Amino acid sequence: MAALAGCGPSTIIGAGAIAGNAAMQERGFVKTVEDTATETKISTNLLSYSAELFIDVSVEVYEGRALLTGKVKRTNDRIEAVRIAWNVSGVREVINEIQVEDTSDLLDAARDQWVTAKLATQITLDKQIKAVNYSIETVNGTVYVMGIAQNQAEVDRIRNHARQLTYVRRIVNYVRIKDSKAGTG
User: Fold this and answer.
1) What is the CATH number of domain 106-177?
2) For residue 137, with 0-12 CB atoms within 10 Å meaning exposed, 13-18 middle and 19 or more buried, which class applies?
3) For residue 12, is pLDDT > 50?
4) pLDDT, position 181
5) Which of 16, 83, 138, 143 could form a disulfide with 112 if both were Cys (CB 3.0 to 4.6 A apart)?
6) What does the alpha-carbon distance between residue 86 and residue 80 come to, in Å, rounded to a whole number?
7) Is the pLDDT of residue 24 over 80?
8) From start to end of the chain, where are the E strands?
9) What DSSP state is assigned to residue 63?
10) What are phi and psi of 30, to 5 degrees?
């Protein structure tokens, strides 16, 4: 109990919620924790390289597959972010979806956040989708979905939810079907 002396009730509840969420995912508790550690290490390395790169590039790691999204000003920044991701232990694949020469504005960024939040809410409320198994990012109207689907019907439901949202220009699927050996579903 002494180890918990500095932890308030909200810290303990928050940690419990994270552990519970990780345990429910198809990839399992250990893999979820490993992916979170890998994601944190990539983000830390991006920050060590450049605060601008850290701010401009989003990282999602699922089963050792690192999805890099965001918008950078120079091609060299895009290349450097990929190099940084590959140099982190636990990365099996780097999916580079970083866009160069950002032409978006603050309104576009707000729309992207709205799309991500709206889609996450829709799939969470859809009883035919196990939403805990997915990660969603939106950049310039492109929705990136990573995770593990129970079946193709679940993937199709997510795609249909995304298609119905205003401002979605494109959907990029990095979902694999449960028990499938393939990298994407």
Assistant:
1) 3.30.1340
2) buried
3) no
4) 56
5) 138
6) 10
7) no
8) 57-62, 65-72, 93-100, 134-139, 142-149, 170-177
9) T
10) -65, -45
Instruction: Name the pairing type of β-strands 142-149 and 134-139.
Output: antiparallel
The DSSP-derived string for 122-134 is HHHH-TTS-GGGE
Stronger pLDDT, 108 or 84, i.e. the higher one: 84
> Where does the pLDDT of residue 139 fall: very low under 50, low under 70, confident under 90, or very high at 90 and above?
confident
- For residue 58, how many other CB atoms are within 10 A of its CB? 20
Q: What is the dihedral of CA 13, 16, 20, 22, to 10 degrees?
A: 120
Size of the chain in residues: 185
Q: From edge to edge, which strands make up the β-sheet containing 134-139?
A: 134-139, 142-149, 170-177
User: Which pTM does this prediction carry?
Assistant: 0.67
User: Element (H or E) spanning 74, and its range?
Assistant: none
Question: Which pairs count as long-range contacts for 35-44, CB under 8 Å and 24+ apart, including other chains?
Answer: 35/61, 35/62, 35/63, 35/64, 35/90, 36/61, 37/90, 38/64, 38/66, 38/88, 38/89, 38/90, 38/91, 39/66, 41/88, 41/89, 41/90, 42/66, 42/84, 42/85, 42/88, 42/91
pLDDT tens for residues 39-73?
999 999 999 999 999 999 999 999 999 999 999 98
The CATH number of domain 11-100 is 3.40.50.2000: no
